[in-house]
Amino acid sequence: MNLQNNRRTYHKKEELNKKTSMLSCFSILAFSLTAFVFIIKGSIDAYEQSNLSKTECPQNYTDLKGTHKLLSRINRDNTKNPQYTQGLLFVNETTLLESSGQYGKSSIHYLNLNDVDNLIFNYELPSNQFGEGCDIINNKVYQLTWLERKINVFNADDLSFITDMKLDDKVAAGWGLTHRVFNGEIQVLITDGSNQVHIADENFIVQQSISIFDDKKKPVTNLNELEYVNGTLFANIYLTSKIVAIDLENQRIIATFDFKDLVKDANRKKRDECLNGIAYNQYSDSFWVTGKNWGFIQEVKLF
Ligand SMILES: [Ca+2]
Question: What is the pLDDT of residue 103?
Fold first, then answer.
């Protein structure tokens, strides 16, 4: 494996090459990328700092009824370049980090809500790696891989590869990833397809594994993509149209959201092209959800 090969694709560069000489193209591109790195870095710093004050979130996400309201939708081209979305989170008001899966098609990139088909700093994984959940902690991007059990680490400024780490043996496989600040400490939260949420330290060493059950004491398995918002953990349930809100401290489901309406709109070709990807935008106090190879990203309000 050599992740350090330059696999990044710059769509803007390709467009500019058609219009300008190589020299002028390079100058313009270098300036644009430098500016984008600056914007991304500043945004992530600000976003991470503001994460610490999420308790000021307008809505109380510990008291939910399990209903949702559709707010807006952004279509994306899922024919030329479909994204098998595995991880999704906001890095600033309009920019998302997305991890995509499947062997030979896995990648990690940023995308802006104003131009979602332009994959920014797209980094393609080796064909023997299946991308899974992703997160940003202290200006580093972490991306899980599925059965390979590698955690790829990137510079959040430009998604340049830094290193990889081994997934803790307590985690069966790489599925979902997020983090929270709990009692002043960063805790990494990982799912593996079971009903467990593994709580790890900043070095991804698992400290505790919490099993989640529904109100009938039945294990809630297939916990997948994650998002932690103001004391509540949200998780996609693989192969279903559902997202559950979890109270980790009490090992219980607060509410279940069923997005049958969105799954119907997605016109899926395969069963595994299910709802997956949940990202909270703290600026609008809304969630953005999507699915694997879906042709849209949907903004929703959860109640
Ligand atoms: Ca997420």
Answer: 98
Which of these, 199, 279, 290, 197, lies nearest to 246 by C-alpha position? 197
Q: What is the CATH number of the domain that holds 247?
A: 2.120.10
Domain membership flag for residue 160: yes
Closest alpha carbon to 7 in 137, 149, 131, 165 = 131
The alpha carbon of residue 235 and the mean position of all alpha carbons in its chain are separated, in whole angstroms, by: 11
Q: Which domain holds residue 90?
A: 11-302
Residue 3 lies in a domain: no
Angle at 86 between CA 83 and CA 88, to 5 degrees: 90
Per residue in 250-270, is it b (16+ CB within 10 Å) or e — as a string?
A: eeebbbbbbbeebbebbebee
303: tokens are: 């109640």
Distance (angstroms) between ligand 1 centre and the Cα of 210 equals: 19
Structural domains counted in the chain: 1
Q: Is residue 2 part of a domain?
A: no
Model pTM score? 0.85
- C-alpha of residue 130 to centroid of ligand 1, in Å: 17
Q: Looking at the DSSP assignment, which residues form a beta bridge with residue 59?
A: none
pLDDT tens-digit profile of 150-191? 999 999 999 999 999 999 999 999 999 999 999 999 999 999
How many A from CA of 26 to the centre of ligand 1? Answer: 34
Residue 5 lies in a domain: no
Burial class (CB in 10 A: 0-12, 13-18, 19+), 160: middle
**If phi over 0 gives left and psi between -120 and 50 gives alpha, with beta otherwise, what is residue 276?**
beta
CA of 229 to the centre of ligand 1 (A): 10
**Distance in angstroms (rounded) separating the CA atoms of residues 211 and 241:** 21
